[in-house]
Give the backbone structure.
Amino acid sequence: MEGGVDYLIDERKKAQFDVEAMKVAWAGSRQAFELSDRIAKLVANDPIFEKFSRPMLGRKELFKNSLRKVAHAWKLIIDLRLSEEEAKLLRHYIDEPAYTDLQWEMFIPAIEGQGTEEQKRKWLPLARKMQVIGSYAQTELGHGSNVQGLETTATFDPQTDEFVIHSPTLTSSKWWPGGTAKVSTHAIVYARLILDGQFHGVHGFIVQLRNLENHTPLPGITVGDIGMKFGNGAYNTMDNGVIRFNHVHIPRNQMLMRVSQVTREGKFVQSDVPRQLLYGTMVYVRQKIVADASKALSRAVCIATRYSAVRRQFGSRNGGPEIQVIDYKTQQSRLFPLLASAYAFRFVGEWLKWLYTDVKQRLEANDFSTLPEAHACTAGLKSLTTSATADGIEECRKLCGGHGYLVSSGIPELFATYVPACTFEGDNVVMMLQVARFLVKTVSELGYKQPVGTTAYMRRVTALMQSNCAVRTAEEWLNPGVVVEAFEARSTRMAVACGQRLAKFENPEEGFAELSADLVEASLAHCQVIVVSKFVEKLQQEIPGKGVKRLLEVLFYVYALFLLHKHQGDFLATGYLTPKQASLANDQLRILYSKVRPNAIALVDSFNHTDHLLSSILGRYDGNVYPKLYEAAFNDPFNDSDIADGIHQYVQPMLRQELHSAKL
Ligand SMILES: CCCCCCCCCC/C=C\C/C=C/C(=O)SCCNC(=O)CCNC(=O)[C@H](O)C(C)(C)COP(=O)(O)OP(=O)(O)OC[C@H]1O[C@@H](n2cnc3c(N)ncnc32)[C@H](O)[C@@H]1OP(=O)(O)O
Ligand SMILES: Cc1cc2nc3c(=O)[nH]c(=O)nc-3n(C[C@H](O)[C@H](O)[C@H](O)COP(=O)(O)OP(=O)(O)OC[C@H]3O[C@@H](n4cnc5c(N)ncnc54)[C@H](O)[C@@H]3O)c2cc1C
């Protein structure tokens, strides 16, 4: 048998649930499913959006091709009158980082969140029609995480009623802003506000970078690309830039003034809006990143699962077929938790979107009460999901053996494009330390203030600290209440222990720094409570379709018990579980893997990923792996000729022992 077509047909027959209904559960609703299915097919059937050759292109070609795709997409948006939601899906399925990501996900949201009504009226229509193209220039060569440490200055000049934007040092050069090196006409530049020699914090300013007629940088602006990034193709379609400002004048009304204002006289006015709102765009994007994690992880898992069903190694009996590698328990114990994680992240992403929408509405009505919770949740879940997804994609590469390392597997480019998500929009450790601040505060107030939102479980601090897990058999782990309580007890105990140890330090900041590694672990434990609880909440809803809910329950237990196994050190050290109970959880996990096994292919089919999106020979829907790998090898331009460039010049003289006279 040459390819794997028959293997996947058989696999699909084994499914014990309604795949079409699971597709709807994954998408969130029938309407969402139909919408994304339509846009996915639109992109897949359009040759301009071809991406298989991307890793083979040089940087300039890659970039130009990306500009062409964006222009074509914009034309489609106009010609087909696509809604904003459809346009976002179009960008997702085109699957190529581009300046439009910054325009729609950072520049516009920054103006929406931090601009005054007048500023929104002026800039938003221009941006939404792409008459100005904007980026988000916060990070500098010398500072990224420490936003208060930025050095770019915005000094008010009362004579001209303008701000003077200036880069006083090399390290103050803006460094990283996407879309900026070659495309954006404007940027939101974060700079230190200086009024009459006094520093008034870091604020955002709309700065024009390029002439709208001929696209040349404006006087006083030096701009360029920061260079090639990790991997071929991948994030190199994006023009991440460096900008240096030499006393660039902008009108006073281009400071984003919802949070604070500067008057005509140069007076600083602080409104009732908390200064943290200046960081609001990052909260928005972190929430988007969480929603995106399940998309990236599900792609890698889909590839690795299909390939694991096609691939056979060892164990042939009487000349029969060898064992499908998906049947090895070791393969299942690496793959199925990732499959379950994709579903867990999908549901927590959905919940976080709801939370963000709620916070946004409150902020618009000047209710800032839930902002700290929203910040902690978005920061923590961004960190948890992106770290797990990046690690998960790499694990999927290994699950595909040697072929996973081929670019045609689709995994290397996916990994290279995805992995910076662990760094951008807040380094993942720095983000977990923000959660830690929130937790420490919550724990220190437990005696007199009822925790709310995602920390509400800590109201039961006494019970969670004192009672222990009652599980006696592996079967008893199949109870959502028992599982969630184990996570809540472990998290509460870790947070309280950190609080007690912090209290021993005279200087709280010193204590926080000293215990920061433990605090990051406590924060992760808390974020895992959120993911596990939101999965349970999802299961409490009505989920139509034969067998769909049952399979999601299996995946929930796989996700939770896998985490429990992985972090059993914490569960044991905090004293909530006994070694016997941890071992029973692991026994249950093995049973669960055998329940996933017959459904594995149908579960990844339920992601509804097109072959275009996967861009993977190993993950092809039809499983026809080997002939297509072979064909792709000989389609590689490197195989255009049997004699590669350089063979006659450098190899033949060696073979002939003529290297001494060769021209090298
Ligand atoms: C993978 C695909 C993704 C798909 C979809 C998305 C589309 C993506 C678009 C393009 C992709 C990438 C572009 C990337 C862009 C960028 O990376 S932009 C730059 C991002 N930079 C950062 O994230 C910097 C991280 N640093 C910070 O956020 C802050 O500096 C930090 C919070 C670490 C510290 O700030 P300080 O001012 O020093 O604050 P601190 O004193 O610690 O805290 C004061 C107080 O404020 C609270 N706080 C902090 N941040 C926020 C916030 N955002 N919202 C609300 N509250 C906040 C903090 O908890 C403290 O509270 P407390 O009560 O006083 O303790
Ligand atoms: C692909 C990509 C696209 C980007 N796009 C943009 C963009 O469009 N606009 C923009 O403004 N920026 C952008 N950035 C920049 C990005 O936001 C920053 O790189 C990010 O916020 C991390 O900051 P840093 O580089 O200063 O890391 P650093 O803070 O220097 O991190 C270095 C190390 O120090 C550790 N560390 C730092 N502070 C602490 C602490 N307090 N406690 C413990 N450990 C700490 C970190 O964990 C990390 O291990 C982009 C970055 C990438 C990679």
Residues 329-364 form the longest helix (36 residues). The pocket of LKMIAJQL (ligand 1) is lined by residues 101-102, 105-106, 136, 138-139, 144-148, 178, 276, 279, 282-283, 285, 288-289, 292, 371-372, 375, 418, 421, 424-426, 430, 434, 437 (CB under 6 Å). The longest strand covers residues 198-208.
